Queue: 2 jobs
Job 1
Amino acid sequence: MNRIADLSVQLSGCVSSETIIRRDEPMARHTTLRVGGPADIYVEPAGEADLAAVLRFCSEQRLNWLVIGRGSNLVVRDGGIRGIVVALSSPVFAQITQAGHCLRAGAGVRLKQLAVEARRWGLSGLEFLAGIPGTVGGALRMNAGAMGGETFRIVVSVRMMTESGEIQELVPAEMTVTYRNCQTLKSRIALAAVFQGVPAERKAIEAKMKAGSEKRWSSQPAAPSAGCMFKNPTAIPAGKLIDELGLKGASVGGARISLEHGNFLVNDGGASAKEVLALMELAQARAKAERGIELHPEVEIVGVDG
Ligand SMILES: Cc1cc2nc3c(=O)[nH]c(=O)nc-3n(C[C@H](O)[C@H](O)[C@H](O)COP(=O)(O)OP(=O)(O)OC[C@H]3O[C@@H](n4cnc5c(N)ncnc54)[C@H](O)[C@@H]3O)c2cc1C
């Protein structure tokens, strides 16, 4: 038996039979850009106890782990991921409960579902989440934002697990949060969070969600992507800069810079991560050479080369 097969058998002995464990799982299946080679071991823990057991196993075996949501901010390299990929896709992590003007949502809840649930309870402030195609866990880690809203502006507290399997519940003031980054969650796994809403008419909430969705559909591509590739430099929005550089429509293999939005790189079908990264490097080189501007990735690039 090879080491990965051996490790996955050992891991299955540490968790309940409901936990899903797969070997050589193609990450292209778990990213919205649809690129990425295999993860050595892919796990969907059936609950918090199994998640803690997986983290302990990683520590004992000195294995790297990576938690993913919907993979909507990830570029996984073609060689895949060495170690264990953890996805909180079990229904246990997808529950939403309401108390007063707050909603408590599991890390696996899709952001659209959370926004829809907030509308059902007549709670405003969460509308911006509706168009972000990630999960609560990913939005917390990325401090995702849109349409003037930002995740941590509506977070009351976050329940999380440390690398040693300990559970903590922290309020934002105890966490390090900046633009599109919650550093506290870099080495912890978000399990759930409480979000604060503001009572409002359902019709008004619906109108905000509709306006946001119309804005997205008119300005963003429908083809597979990982959202905005680059952070906005202070001087100019990244999409505008890429447009001004004449790069809209530029392609490397199956990877293409969207004609609809210069900061979106789309997979025309069959793109490899290598092609995606080559196209990103091309945009970075042109921005630097022609405008003296450094473009920094907003997407997270993980894994090893093919
Ligand atoms: C079409 C499109 C539009 C987008 N629009 C926006 C937008 O308007 N605004 C915006 O901010 N983003 C946008 N994004 C990017 C992306 O959707 C967000 O960053 C989202 O929050 C990522 O969530 P995810 O569940 O997909 O996380 P993933 O991409 O799976 O992971 C992102 C990061 O979060 C970490 N992570 C995931 N789950 C957890 C957890 N439970 N605990 C700790 N860390 C975790 C991962 O390790 C990784 O570091 C867009 C993407 C696409 C494809």
Job 2
Amino acid sequence: MASDPSQHSTDDVAGRVHDHSPGPASDRVFGGVDDVLAVLRRWGSVFYDDRVTQLDHALQCATLARESGAGDELVVAALLHDIGHLLELERNEGRIGDLGVDRDHESIAARALAPLFPPEVVAPVALHVAAKRYLCAVEPEYHATLSEGSVRSLVTQGGPMTPDEIERFERHPAHAAAADLRRWDDAGKVEHLQVAGLDSFAATVRAVARP
Ligand SMILES: [Fe+2]
Ligand SMILES: [Fe+2]
């Protein structure tokens, strides 16, 4: 890729103040790719919503990315974009708590993934919530496509972007990738959909990880 998404602060682009207070989840750093895959396997059976599990959602998103011809980094970003929720589950020892409430899961994921993956993976993950706020602002018809849960969380995530936030978001080199990821995120919630398993993505995850 020609541009380096790491040159831009994803927090600034998100256009809101994040709580960066240290805690067990935000301090979690993956030991390696095997650890990432193990977290997906261990906590993926927890339900994402009332139709699909966390792993179903991750695999459906990654499959949509792959079928769209996305590069390997973006396929991996799609697979891992909600791993912040799984780290929260791990921290809470499996208690679901209120997963519907946004706990900055995109930032938790980005911090945990950054030592292991390049910005082309990490930035779209970090921006996938901001991308929802962006698409809600620039595509009036997009809001109507959101699930009930996504509409609910939009409020706590700050609502549609303001014109200033839109401008900043569009300056980020990963903004288009983040918007693509967001569309797969919205579509990857189909009950009983059979897609390839985690094993079929493991080699790609390993290939894009930092050496
Ligand atoms: Fe998410
Ligand atoms: Fe998601």
